[in-house]
Amino acid sequence: AARIIQNMDPTADPCQDFYQYACGGWLNRHVIPETSSRYSIFDILRDELEIILKGVLETSDQGDREAFQKAKILYKSCMNESLIEQRDSSPLLEALKMVGDWPVASADWNETKEPSWSMEENLSIMNSRFNKRVLIDMFVWNDDRDSSRHIIHIDQPTLGMPSRDYYFNGGNYQRVREAYLQFMITIAKMIREDKNVSKDDSFVQEEMAKVMEFETEIAN
After folding, report:
1. 112-123 as b/e, with b when 16 or more CB fall inside 10 Å?
2. Helix or strand run (H / E) with residue 183
3. CA separation for the pair 218, 46 (Å, rounded)
4. Cβ(167)–Cβ(215) under 8 Å?
5. CA 58, 63, 67, 73: dihedral to nearest 10 degrees?
6. Rg, C-alpha atoms of the chain
7. For the segment 32-79, what is each residue's pLDDT rounded down to a tens digit?
8. Residue 26, Cβ neighbours under 10 Å: how many?
9. Helix, coil or strand: residue 111
10. How many CA atoms within 13 Å lie on the side-chain side of 25?
11. What are the pLDDT digits (tens) for 82-119?
12. Per-residue pLDDT at 150
């Protein structure tokens, strides 16, 4: 009750400005951090929880259950920035190999990879190994008709950008769309360079434009 009263502004007339009356105390005591686009009690709780989790994950893993050990290994692998820098793009290149490589980052994908490449097989690998859903989202969850059992759900996945609006609207949406395409082109060029594939900017731009066109069709 004290916290609710503290977040109110009793000096405001609720009949004139109910929002100021109900939330004025909160607005006066909190400033949205520069690193955030919003700030609420849930964001504060999340920040507090992350501090607690950090402390837990940095303790010794001796005697921990397997699930806790895995969480601490994952945390340490993310925090070891020197090893991440040392490995550079090699983990990404290894991941690409597992799904049949990337045509735009290959000199002869159509001849060497395409004949034996299976979309169904590689979609399943991306789902099971990398938790990445492309074209089809498939997962095991409760049966809506019978909560005592689990079933396979098949659904549409998320788009590359946050929503359909980003693919069709103008203004800021268009600027994000242009940056998104440029980002794809930049990543493709970097991977080609790391794989020692000959430089071909026009080919990369044409291929990524096709990807953007395909994503737009899916969004539509």
Report:
1. eeeeeeeeeeeb
2. helix 172-194
3. 34
4. yes
5. 40
6. 24
7. 989 888 888 899 999 999 999 999 999 988 888 999 999 999 999 999
8. 17
9. helix
10. 12
11. 999 999 999 999 999 999 999 999 888 999 999 999 99
12. 97
Q: Long-range pairs for 11-16 at CB < 8 Å and ≥24 separation?
A: none
Q: Are 107 and 198 in contact (CB under 8 A)?
A: yes
Alpha-carbon distance of 83 to 90, in angstroms, equals 12
> Which whole number is the average pLDDT over 119-140?
90
Token code pair at residue 93? 């290149």
Amino acid occupying residue 19: Y
The SS3 assignment for 32 reads coil
H/E element, 148: strand 146-155
Q: Which two tokens stand for residue 135?
A: 């074209």
User: What is the distance between the alpha carbons of residues 110 and 40, in angstroms, rounded to a whole number?
Assistant: 51
C-alpha to C-alpha distance for 165 and 171, rounded to whole angstroms: 11
Task: Report the distance separating Cα 49 and Cα 172, nearest Å.
Answer: 34
Structure tokens at 188: 């493709």
| Alpha helices, H only, 148-171 | 165-168
Distance CA 136, CA 175 (A): 28
Burial of 39 (0-12, 13-18, 19+ CB in 10 A): middle
d(CA 168, CA 218): 12
pTM of the model: 0.70
